[in-house]
Structures are given as structure tokens and as C-alpha cells.
Write a sequence for this structure.
């Protein structure tokens, strides 16, 4: 039986990945500061602890793993990443986690190591046009990410590749583009756009309004969790290290996303545009490289995944879980 380690197994993508790996027959150990907040973990073994602590990493690596999935990071949506208030914490915490995990992989052995990078590594100046953003993998240099979160991700990409070169460690790097789905953060201040929009629509009375940061004309693409996992597994099991985009190329404005959520909910709401952190003006996943290298690219329409996500968030709202934007366990300063 294949032994797999998932770092960040209490998070949104990590908890879904554990379920997928278990369906494939793997023995899975999860590590995180917290257990998944919305469902029991499917991991065979779960170590709750701080991956910034080298001793915790040594405890997790008490055996050789065929695969190590490094998804752990200090992160969140625009309200957390783009205010500037959390920059030092984000960079320090995530860099420390990656340093520890890489060194543990080197010392204890790992078959393959997957690192989840982000579309935030791409230069801000290539994403000023909401209709024609550029995120082709080779355009990441000269480097000019729009956030310190993006700078840390880019640094860590280079660190994983350096360990791969110097120590013969097979690494795989994916640049995720706005992954969404059920059982993700939706009301704790770290939720991403699809979850925030679904929550606002679910909480609003028909005929009311919801707030949208900025003019709502900024564009993004959003990838449903199942396709994220499919692309990640294909990359991990391939002979190619990446980095590669894993995201949808169906680009929509935030206003369009909100109207789609309204249509799914059967509600007629107006949009109230208010100041707020925005990130880049436009971003979309360029999927030409993944299609060429892996013979696969995401294809599911946004509406299909948003229907499932809205249904789950609406259920949370109706069950009374949306009372106070509850903070959940996170990395301390």
C-alpha cells in the first residue's frame, strides 16, 4: 500500500485531497494545525501540530513516503492577502513551513514532493487589462507579483526546484488559480470570492442587495475542487516537474459571478459596489502548457461547480452557522 503524507490536510484542498487518496487505496497521514472544520478527516493518521516547528516535521516523517503533498500555508482571500496588514506573518509563516518540509524530505526520504504554488506569482503589470491578462507560465519573469503572498510563493518555487536539482528530489509544482467548492472557508474572513459571493446571496432577502468590492469589472477564473485534484494528481504522477497552471480558463467578471450565484439561488438582487481590496485587475488561467504536457486541461463549466458550492453554503446559512463570521483555528503571529 502506498504511504502518502498530506501537509495542510485540515485545509480546504488538503481535506478533499485526503478523501481522493483514500479512494485510491493509499495509506494517508495528514498534518495541520487543525482538523478539517466541516467534516471528519479521512486520513488514517492525523498529527495536529505546527509545521513551523522542525520537531513536528521530524515526527511526521517517521517513515518513507511515496508522495508528500505540501499544501500548508498562511493564506486567505483578498480580505486577508491584499490589505497589507498580514504581509510579514504570511511570508514568515509560509517560508518557515516550506523550509522545514523540504529539509525533512531531504533527511527522511520522499518519493515525490508536490508544492502548491499560486497564480499570485505572475507579474502585476501583465494583469492590468481585465479582458486580456497574461498568465503563460514563462511570463513569471521578470518577477513583479502584486502581493507579498505572491513573492513568497515564487521564492518557495525556486527553493523546491533547487532542492530537486541539488539532492535528486523529484518535485512537482502547480500554480493554483482560485480553487473553490464545498467545505471551504466561507464566513471567517479568509474566504475567497466564490464562497463570499455565495454567502452574501444566501443571506440576502429576495429583492435586497449585496456588496461587491470595487466596480465588479475585475476578472478571474475559478476552478472547482474536483478538477483541481485531477490535475494535481496527473502532474504528481507524470515525469514533468512543472511549474504549471492548474485553473479554469473560463474568465468572468465579479459582477458576472454574482449574477450567476443569484440565478442559481433564484433571487433578484442589486449590486452595491463598495471600496475594498481588489488584487490585480484581471486574471485567467492559460492552459496551453498543461494540455500539451499532460494531455489534459480543466473543462467543467463554472456554473456546475458553483451550484454545488452554493447549495452547501446555503445549507450552512440556513442551519444558523453564519451568525458572527466565526474565526477558526489559524497560524498564530
Amino acid at each position: 500500500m502506498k504511504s502518502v503524507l498530506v501537509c495542510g490536510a485540515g485545509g480546504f484542498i488538503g481535506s478533499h485531497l485526503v478523501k481522493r487518496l483514500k479512494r485510491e487505496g493509499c495509506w494517508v497521514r495528514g498534518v495541520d494545525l487543525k482538523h478539517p472544520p466541516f467534516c471528519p478527516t479521512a486520513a488514517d493518521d492525523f498529527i495536529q501540530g505546527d509545521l513551523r516547528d522542525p520537531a513536528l516535521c521530524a515526527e511526521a516523517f517517521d517513515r518513507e513516503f511515496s508522495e508528500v503533498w505540501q499544501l500548508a500555508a498562511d493564506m486567505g482571500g483578498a480580505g486577508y492577502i491584499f490589505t497589507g496588514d498580514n504581509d510579514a506573518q504570511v511570508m514568515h509563516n509560509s517560508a518557515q513551513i516550506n523550509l522545514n518540509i523540504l529539509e525533512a524530505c531531504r533527511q527522511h526520504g520522499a518519493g515525490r514532493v508536490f508544492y502548491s504554488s499560486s497564480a499570485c506569482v505572475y507579474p502585476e503589470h501583465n494583469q492590468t487589462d481585465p479582458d486580456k491578462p497574461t498568465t503563460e507560465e514563462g511570463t513569471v519573469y521578470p518577477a513583479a507579483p502584486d502581493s507579498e503572498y505572491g513573492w513568497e510563493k515564487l521564492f518557495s518555487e525556486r527553493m523546491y526546484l533547487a532542492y530537486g536539482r541539488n539532492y535528486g528530489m523529484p518535485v512537482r509544482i502547480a500554480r493554483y488559480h482560485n480553487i473553490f467548492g464545498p467545505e471551504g472557508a466561507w464566513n471567517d474572513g479568509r474566504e475567497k470570492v466564490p464562497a463570499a459571493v455565495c454567502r452574501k446571496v444566501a443571506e440576502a432577502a429576495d429583492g435586497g442587495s449585496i456588496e461587491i468590492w470595487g466596480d465588479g469589472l475585475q476578472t478571474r477564473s475559478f476552478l472547482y475542487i474536483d478538477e483541481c485534484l485531477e490535475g494535481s494528481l496527473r502532474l504528481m504522477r507524470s515525469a514533468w516537474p512543472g511549474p504549471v497552471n492548474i485553473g479554469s480558463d473560463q474568465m468572468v467578471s465579479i459582477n458576472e459571478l454574482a449574477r450567476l450565484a443569484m440565478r442559481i439561488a433564484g433571487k433578484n438582487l442589486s449590486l452595491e459596489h463598495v471600496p475594498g481590496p481588489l488584487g490585480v485587475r484581471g486574471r485567467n488561467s492559460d492552459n496551453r502548457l498543461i494540455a500539451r504536457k499532460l494531455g489534459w486541461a480543466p473543462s467543467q463549466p463554472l456554473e456546475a461547480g458553483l451550484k454545488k458550492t452554493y447549495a452547501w453554503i446555503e445549507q450552512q446559512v440556513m442551519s444558523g452557522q453564519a451568525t458572527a463570521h466565526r474565526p477558526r483555528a489559524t497560524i498564530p503571529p
Notes: The chain has ten helices and 13 strands. The longest strand covers residues 110-118. Confidence is low (pLDDT under 50) at residues 322-333. The radius of gyration is 19 Å.
